[in-house]
């Protein structure tokens, strides 16, 4: 075995002494049947290890060369303990930053976030026009309308259900939700309407309609990850932690939003349910982007004020950008991943999508 090499901190390294020399990589160039045969040989228990050992030696991957940094890793000693999760020790608070206590109830936390926003002026949004032009209703717009008895969550629910049901008859179809239960939505909306009638809304999010990406648990809907089989091997018995927190604030959950199958793509294209893809609400001949295609599309369409997506390499940010809405990838650990299909990774997060930065803050 080669001599062990101990890595040193960059500040102690004299970079002028470091020389990089390109090595010639020797590997078989195979295609077709020869490639298939080579793969079978490499996968064979004994023969495969001999082949890989030969290729490594041929390319000096078991030697330690100061001039060849890529090949030093096998015999390199790193003095620091490995960081298995990207978490950092507590830091001094930044100036002018409001820290929301993680231990407080969700209702209290959203109330604190609400106090950080500028004053809400209903006159700027409620002009009294009989046929106003399209605009996104923000969370505080709905909250004002509910508290002023201009509309009720049940009235809004009926409109949303009607539009969602009509989406499947569009030419071309515009599928937004994979799992959808109209009666469950009406039941949630009726409970919210009663709270407003009694003067006891749970929070500023009470009566706000949200969709949940299909890889996040939202009981009683199955979590398919936009596949045709995941729900058969993975049952859903309760809400994901993030969904439970939203529900405790009075959020009305409309169902499971479409997505790129298992999040393995950035277009949102998914033919598993008889459709080519979730369509971009601003131009139905265009993609939404993915993988959180359904959440971004349902927000961009104006049906829901917000939605939850997941993001490992852009799956919230890409469709938000293509659909003209706001998506946030939070710092790792900022939101709980418990109850999502992708809860074991260290780059994946559950993040909000909304029409405005203000609403992203509240969600």
Automatic annotation (TrEMBL):
Gene3D superfamilies in the record: Amidase signature (AS) domain (3.90.1300.10)
Membership in a protein family: Belongs to the amidase family.
Keywords of this entry: Hydrolase
CC per GO annotation: membrane
GO BP annotations, alphabetical order: N-acylethanolamine metabolic process
PROSITE patterns tied to this protein: AMIDASES
Designated name of the protein: Fatty acid amide hydrolase-like isoform X4
Pfam families, A to Z: Amidase
Spans traversing the lipid bilayer: none
Ranges of residues in domain Amidase: 175-363
GO molecular function: N-(long-chain-acyl)ethanolamine deacylase activity
């Amino acid at each position: 075995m080669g001599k062990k090499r101990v890595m040193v901190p960059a500040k102690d390294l004299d970079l002028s002494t470091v020389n990089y020399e390109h090595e010639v990589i020797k590997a078989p160039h195979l295609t077709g049947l020869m490639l298939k045969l080579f793969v079978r040989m490499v996968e064979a228990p004994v023969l495969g290890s001999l082949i890989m050992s030969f290729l490594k030696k041929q390319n000096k991957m078991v030697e330690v060369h100061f001039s060849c940094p890529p090949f030093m890793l096998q015999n390199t000693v790193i003095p620091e303990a490995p960081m298995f999760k990207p978490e950092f020790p507590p830091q001094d608070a930044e100036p002018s930053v409001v820290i929301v206590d993680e231990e407080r109830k969700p209702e209290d936390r959203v109330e604190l976030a609400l106090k950080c926003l500028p004053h809400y002026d209903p006159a700027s949004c409620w002009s009294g026009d009989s046929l106003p032009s399209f605009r996104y209703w923000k969370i505080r717009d709905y909250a004002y309308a509910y508290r002023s008895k201009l509309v009720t969550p049940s009235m809004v629910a009926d409109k949303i259900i009607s539009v969602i049901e009509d989406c499947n008859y569009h030419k071309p179809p515009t599928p937004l939700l994979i799992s959808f239960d109209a009666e469950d939505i009406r039941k949630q909306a009726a409970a919210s309407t009663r709270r407003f009638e009694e003067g006891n809304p749970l929070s500023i999010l009470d009566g706000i309609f949200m969709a949940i990406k299909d890889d996040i648990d939202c009981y009683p809907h199955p979590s398919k990850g936009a596949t045709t089989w995941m729900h058969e091997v993975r049952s859903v018995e309760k809400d994901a932690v993030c969904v439970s927190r939203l529900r405790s604030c009075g959020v009305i959950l409309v169902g499971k939003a479409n997505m790129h199958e298992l999040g393995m793509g950035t277009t949102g294209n998914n033919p598993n349910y008889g459709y080519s893809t979730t369509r971009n609400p601003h131009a139905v001949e265009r993609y939404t982007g993915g993988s959180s295609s359904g959440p971004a599309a349902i927000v961009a369409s104006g049906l829901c004020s917000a939605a939850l997506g997941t993001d490992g390499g852009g799956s919230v940010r890409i469709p938000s950008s293509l659909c003209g809405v706001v998506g946030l990838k939070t710092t790792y650990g900022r939101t709980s991943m418990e109850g999502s299909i992708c809860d074991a990774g260290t780059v994946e997060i559950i993040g909000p999508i909304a029409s405005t930065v203000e609403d992203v803050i509240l969600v």
